[in-house]
Amino acid sequence: MDFPFLFQTMKTLLAALPVTLGLFSLSVLFGGFLAILIVWMRVGGNPILSRFARGYIFVFRGSPLLIQMFLVFYGLGQFGFIRHSFVWPALREPFVCAVLSLALCTAGYTAEIFRFGLRAVPPREIEAARAIGMSGFLLVRRIIAPIAFRHALPAYSTEIVMMVKSTALASLVTVWEVTGVAQRLISQTYRTMEVFLCAAIIYLVLNFLILQAMALLEHYLSPHRRAAAPLVPGGLPVSR
Amino acid sequence: MWLVETLGFGQTGWGGLLLMGALMTLCVTLAALLLGAVLGAIVAAAKLSQSRAIRTAGGVYTTIFRGVPELLIIYLVYFGGSSAVTAIGAYFGFEGFLGMPSFIAGALAVGLICGAYQAEVYRGAFLAIPKGELEAAEAIGMHRFLRFRRIIMPQVLRFAIPGIGNVWQLSLKDSALVSVTGLADLMRTSQVAAGSTRQYFLFFIAGGCLYLVLTSMSDRLFARAERRASRSMPAGIGQI
């Protein structure tokens, strides 16, 4: 094995890691906010908003991310009113387009995950909260959101790992992140296996760290399960 | 009128080519799903094996192919495969670079990824078979193969249908990435049409709609298959 080459490749690829991380964190952040908005529309009770949210989820989950990204990157610039508007300096940047399409796409998937999380909130807890006079935002913040988020976490961490992988598509709209740099190295050196190995290690380590962090978050968010376990030695935990 | 002409089936219309592209997408995904079924069954068996080494090998396979970006795997198969083909060509006396056929490269790459996901599906389905049935089969003296054919296989397939449906949707969208190797699938055809008419927005929307047709149609097909397969099962949780 050619260690100097592997070392050099790793160094080149790691130089592109900040771009991947930037794409990932920005799109997860904006996608998360958008997903909350869409879930709110979906379950809010207004039939028109609910239908819109349904359509949004259907479109963004049913079509490939690549076509969405190309639509944003190539398609939007076609219209004069967008080219002459104040958002054009931002939309001209490939990085912004990539983040925009990644966020739009993940919002569709995340909205469904959050909705299933909401279903896990027991109605009696909401009733209890209402009985002591909580309503509106306070009810969501204190009771509904924490329970729903905790239940959604396992599926949400899978979605987040999918997002790490999806950032690779940004290379096709000329953002030089890890996969794009790897592809350039492969076509320069023809040493596919070595370059693949280095890039794969970067992604696998990244995924591992993210999954660990999510597991830690889940542990931190479920103190009730930790407390319940030792109370019943040798038996199944008593259901509340 | 202009719209009908551009998207229609006439001399200057792209409708026929887009439909051919959709057919190609279906073919690649189907080939990948079949390859993935074989790989998935082998890897699932490996992950359920008694031997620790074989279990680890299965785990490594699923970790790599589920954790590394699909695009990177397509590059690995396409460029790696092409250099292998070139080497074989050189052995038989062909000079110069020989490309790997992009259909084979695409089906292989998506099949490898799809196999990793299917392995998890089959493993879960196998674990859902009641242990008593396997013991009963052994008790009345069924041999391994007979037991596999009569007891394991029919139930694994039935339990696996929803999972395979998910994997199919995933692969259908992953197959859009095969367009980077130049295969004239739906993604690539929309791209070419968009580039040569300069109607990016129109053609990416049209391509996206065709993908939506493919995904929603296959969704229905799998729901129907699930209903049919669970005809004889008593209605339980999750079945309506």
Automatic annotation (TrEMBL), chain A:
PROSITE patterns: ABC_TM1. Keywords: Cell inner membrane, Cell membrane, Membrane, Transmembrane, Transmembrane helix, Transport. Residues 13-214 form the ABC transmembrane type-1 domain. GO terms for molecular function: transmembrane transporter activity. It is found in: Cell inner membrane; Cell membrane. InterPro entries: AA_ABC_transptr_permease_3TM, ArtM/GltK/GlnP/TcyL/YhdX-like, MetI-like, MetI-like_sf. One of its GO terms (biological process) is amino acid transport. The chain crosses the membrane at residues 20-43, 55-75, 95-116, 128-148, 160-182, 194-217. This is ABC transporter permease.
UniProtKB/TrEMBL annotation, chain B:
It is found in: Cell inner membrane; Cell membrane. One of its GO terms (cellular component) is ATP-binding cassette (ABC) transporter complex. The chain crosses the membrane at residues 20-46, 72-92, 98-117, 200-223. InterPro entries: AA_ABC_transptr_permease_3TM, ABC_transp_permease_HisMQ, MetI-like, MetI-like_sf. Residues 22-222 form the ABC transmembrane type-1 domain. SUPFAM superfamilies: MetI-like. Keywords: Cell inner membrane, Cell membrane, Membrane, Transmembrane, Transmembrane helix, Transport. It is a multi-pass membrane protein. Its main location: membrane. GO terms for molecular function: transmembrane transporter activity. Pfam families: BPD_transp_1. Belongs to the binding-protein-dependent transport system permease family. HisMQ subfamily. This is ABC transporter permease. It comes from Paramesorhizobium deserti.
